[in-house]
């Protein structure tokens, strides 16, 4: 039996979902990246009240018209073997496209509130000082990192206590475009978080 490129197969699934406009997600992930079950919509996307942060969903971080899978969507990844030079070259090309994903400048500079999952970068006895926020469970840890415009680098105002890997949280702060390359993935956005709070279904 042929050994399969699990990395490529995972990307192929994401390719198909994105191309079909699928928004199936694992809570509290929101539209923009496909995962494997259910949907949830905490808060009201785009809603804003004077003096409060704008609650956003992950899809707004992707600029309109960006098609990261345009040249890959017709490829049959399952026919490729581990070690196939063509497969490895395609994997590298796809990773380059994802790691250099463009940002949506229309949302940059706004104070926002967004839910996601925690991927630790610096955890200390005083709390988590730095982490990535991702839109679906397992991203960067149990599956390949999503596109860079679907990862937010979070620097809490003060170390966030009690956080663990893949905890679901709300992040509040001003969204800026600062490129971050880490061992867990590349992020196009950064938030110096004014607050980090547990996620709940009520969106509060």
List the helices and strands and how they pair.
Blueprint (H helix, E strand, L loop, with lengths): L5 H14 L34 E2 L29 H15 L11 E14 L2 E8 L17 E3 L13 E9 L3 E3 L2 E3 L1 E3 L3 E4 L6
Parallel strand pairs: 1-2, 4-8
Antiparallel strand pairs: 2-3, 2-5, 3-4, 5-8, 5-9, 6-7
Question: Can you summarize this structure?
Answer:
The chain is of the alpha+beta class. The protein is 14% helix and 24% strand.
Question: What is the CATH architecture assignment?
Answer: Beta Barrel
In total, the number of strands is 9
CATH secondary-structure class: Mainly Beta
Helical run tally:
2
Helix content: 10-25%
| Rg on CA atoms, Å | 17 Å
What structural class do the secondary elements suggest? alpha+beta
CATH homologous superfamily heading: Protein of unknown function (DUF3299)
């Amino acid at each position: 039996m042929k050994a399969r490129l699990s990395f490529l197969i995972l990307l192929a699934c994401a390719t198909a979902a994105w191309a079909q406009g699928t928004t199936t997600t694992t809570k509290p992930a929101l539209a923009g990246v496909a995962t494997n079950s259910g949907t949830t919509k905490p808060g009201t996307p785009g809603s804003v009240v004077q003096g409060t942060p704008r609650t956003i969903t992950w899809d707004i971080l992707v600029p309109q018209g960006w098609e990261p899978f345009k040249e890959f969507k017709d490829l049959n990844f399952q026919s490729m073997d581990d070690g196939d030079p063509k497969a490895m070259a395609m994997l590298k090309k796809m990773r380059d496209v994802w790691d250099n994903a463009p940002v949506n400048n229309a949302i940059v500079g706004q104070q926002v509130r967004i839910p996601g999952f925690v991927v630790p970068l610096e955890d200390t006895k005083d709390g988590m000082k730095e982490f990535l926020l991702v839109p679906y469970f397992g991203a960067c840890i149990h599956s390949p990192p999503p596109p860079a415009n679907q990862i937010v680098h979070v620097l809490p105002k003060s170390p966030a206590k009690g956080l663990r890997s893949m905890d679901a949280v709300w992040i509040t702060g001003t969204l800026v475009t600062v490129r971050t390359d880490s061992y867990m993935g590349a992020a196009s956005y950064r938030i110096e978080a004014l607050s980090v709070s547990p996620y709940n279904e009520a969106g509060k």
